[in-house]
């Protein structure tokens, strides 16, 4: 069973980590469900659905891929008794499925495949290998996660390293884009152990990477074309590709290797291709193993339209992420959102109706939820939670907006807030403790005229640090405490104004 993780942030801010157990954790899960009920979706009796991919089909059926190589279709998935049919089997651990141009597309470990039910009997009978010129050697950790098609119809795929810390197959630790005509294009290097990948509404691609070598903490990363993501282990594929006569395309040269024991902010200045993590998901506080993501573009899932929801496998939770672009670099804040799921969440899906589906398994690493697999549905019930809505960086601090009007007295009081800042060692060793710790002082507070925002002026901001801003003393106009009182902002860039 998971044990509480005590960190600098936890101790100083009194934050409840999602790995903790007991009455406080149970009370939080109950409080969250007062706004976002979680419903278990009944699955076929006797079957093991270790959910690894989700897609809504044009006919309203929910397509569910599993780690065991199957795709199931659930008719009326929102009902108390969905009707299930096994649509495909024999795939190699698909981690990402989508529907486009009359085909179901899946990223398997060795390739991108498309499938179709030609004779209309409810089972796929046409399978075509689309492409994916990456290597695979049977290692347990050589997972491949894929997106839905981009504007060009291409599937973006992020490829785990061999054994989580080596690269013994071509393009392991890379991202590869596969086009419908079978062409493959290397997109980025420097990846370690992705857990999910997806597109923002504007078409930008993001993925989650797990704590380990060159990753002090798990994080959400911007998958910029031509970028280096920080882990040099897979850069041997520059030579492997050249030996096989395979072009690395936009990645026309091997990036300079970062210095182990340094800091990301320092190495960014030396490695021109290096794109820093957009949002650090503090290890042991928000989770251990972030996975798949989805956006609410509907406005039907509560007040968080345009924000991202990220699955968490180990802690069996969902996290919420607010993103912004500052000085041309993506960064933003992570918040706890919803806990107490049945198993380790791997895949997420937001439907056009504003319903979030998530599911996964505990195989390999275990999961706090306790069940070997689960498929669950989250609905917003129309009640407004009192939450930090957005957290934006300013030249001298942060602007926080809220989902409800604030109590002006507590909002204007600097004692209602707390601030911490830290970073991680950027190193080839596994993970990192919180280091270079700071306790910024909140020197001024300005409450917005709309009573839904505050400007916090800090005596210091530190580029490259996670800034944890907490508001435990802040009350709503109706006297409520924040449901989740802390935002964790990754300050890659300080705004110029």
Structure in a nutshell:
With 497 residues, the protein is mainly β. Helices cover 7% and strands 36% of the residues.
Molecular structure report:
There is one protein chain. The longest helix is centred in the first third of the chain and has 11 residues, at 23-33. The strands form seven sheets. An eight-stranded antiparallel beta sheet has the order 18-19-20-21-32-31-27-28. The chain has a four-stranded antiparallel beta sheet with strand order 1-24-23-22, with no helix packed on it. It has a four-stranded antiparallel beta sheet with strand order 2-3-4-5, with no helix packed on it. The chain has five helices and 32 strands. The mean pLDDT is 96. It starts with 7 loop residues before the first helix and ends in a 7-residue tail after the last strand. The chain has a single domain, classed as Neuraminidase, CATH 2.120.10.30. It is mainly β.
